[in-house]
Amino acid sequence: MTLERTSLPRGRGVVPSPAGRILIVDDNPAIHDDFQKILRTRSVEEDTLDKMARELFGRPARPIPQHEFMLDSAFQGREAVARVEAALIGRRPYSLVFLDVRMPPGWDGLDSLEAIWRADPRVHVVLCTAYADYSWDEIVARVGETDRLLILKKPFQSSEVRQLAHSITAKWRLARALEQRFADLEERVQTRTAELEAINRSLRVEVEEHARIEQELRRAQRLEALGRLAAGLGHEINNPLTFLIASLESIQSELDQYWQRIPGGLRSEIESLLGTSLVGAERITQIVRNIKRFARPSEDASERVDVRQTIDGAVAAVARALGPGAAVEVELAGRPYVNVRRTDLDLVFTSLLEHAAHAVASAPSPGRIRISAHRDGGDLVIEILDSGLGMEDLEKVFEPASATKVLNQGAGLGLSICHAIVMALDGSMDVQSAPEQGTAIMVRLPGSLVEWRAAPAMGA
Question: Which residues contact 314 (CB under 8 A, 6 or more apart)?
């Protein structure tokens, strides 16, 4: 049966001693005395020539130190195992054990060897025996083939014992130093690996940030190009549009004196056509106004703007676009004011409410728009929630002319303009929507622009 060995932690759990630590295990006290005489620390006295030189030239005597060994004794196998375990706990392990094979009445040498190697698989062992109790094959069958086991026949020579002690303890110290080196190298590799992983994570963050910045840059470039195009288009559309509206209003004014002569059915049809034309022309006027705002941001000075008044004005402006039975709810925590250009804030809320009104008006059942504002830290968060048809492609929701509105309800510039205005204020916009589930648009304005007052009393 092969010995089952316990693996020990490498490197820092072992403190090799310059003096080899040796354990003598034998039930005969005389054997311990013999090992002490052979391996104990001693000095070699100076020879005759050295003595004469010292006497002639006055040199002090210099004893020559021999190799030191730290010797411990155990008289039975169990005691030996206890000493080996205690040495490991004290981080001063033995490098060599001289182990007698016959130690009645306790364990014999092989039983003790198996227990010692279970406690410390690194220690080298020299089996000392005067008898052929076990053959080498029997020993290998029990403990396995290893270079940490030697057999020393009794009676042994002093030179053999010293040679074994020197070579084995030197080999043990070299193995421990190598283990320590590998442990240090492994620690350095782990530290370097952790540093590389941190660098890799940082690079991933930088790459993602770079990609985000590139995306924002491309969007800004598209907006800039569209702005230049929009400026020209707005100018070209505005002049004929002015004539168109003036002509329609003139026709409506001229027809007032002829209404009595026109049959009722035809009169209703003309009124409907004129009304539809004027609504369409007014819508084009609003689009042109948005285009101009998109192309040339306002240069008005910032002022303290009442958010509640701005929202109420936007609600009134889009009331005609709401479908029959639609409801608008406004709920504000306190009375927020923001330091911005009034025209910017008017345009943001009017455009967002117009977007919500179109969504609600196109829904199959009467819809609802809920506008709320609350404080988040120092920031002001305004949420506009509608129960309309919702949107699908949210990735391009802030792209100019993206198809976020229902058919025939605008060119999709409103959200792009709102997003540009809010971002210019160091704020943010977020859109959450799903088909048939409605849309929620959150506008966050930084606390540096916000001033809060208590909510007004009822009826104020």
Answer: 346, 349, 350, 352, 353
Q: What is the pLDDT of residue 418?
A: 83
CA dihedral 416→422→428→431, nearest 10 degrees, is -40
Q: Residue 43 above 60 pLDDT?
A: no
Per-residue pLDDT at 421:
83
| pLDDT score, position 437 | 79
Alpha carbon distance 318, 367 (integer Å): 14
DSSP class of residue 260 equals G
Q: Which residue has the tokens 């000075």?
A: 301
Cβ atoms of 308 and 315 within 8 Å: the answer is: no
Type and span of the H or E element at 450: strand 450-453
How far CA 188 is from CA of 87, 185, 196, 321, in Å, comes to: 29, 5, 12, 70
User: To the nearest 10°, the Cα dihedral for 163, 169, 175, 178?
Assistant: -110
Task: Provide the pLDDT confidence category of residue 378 given band limits of 50, 70 and 90.
Answer: confident
Q: What are phi and psi of 187, to 5 degrees?
A: -65, -40
Mean pLDDT confidence for 400-414: 49
Which amino acid is residue 394, in one-letter code? L
Q: Identify the CA nearest to 162 among candidates 67, 93, 95.
A: 67
Please, are residues 17 and 68 in contact by the beta-carbon 8 Å criterion? no
pTM of full prediction above 0.70? no
> What does 320-363 look like in DSSP terms, one character per residue?
GGSPTT-EEEEEESSEEEEEE-HHHHHHHHHHHHHHHHHHHHTS
Q: At what angle do helices 109-119 and 136-143 cross, to 10 degrees?
A: 30
Domains of the chain: 20-156 (3.40.50.2300), 300-453 (3.30.565.10)
Give the C-alpha separation, 160 to 152, whole Å: 9
Please report, to the nearest 10 degrees, the dihedral formed by the alpha carbons of residues 119, 124, 129, 135 taken in order: 90
- State how beta strands 43-44 and 64-65 pair: antiparallel
Between CA 141 and CA 150 the distance in angstroms is 15
Stated length of the chain = 460
Say how far apart CA 59 and CA 303 lie, in whole Å: 101
Phi, psi (deg, nearest 5) at residue 104: -65, 150
* 383 touches 331 (CB < 8 A): no
* HSE toward the beta carbon, residue 430, CA cutoff 13 A: 7
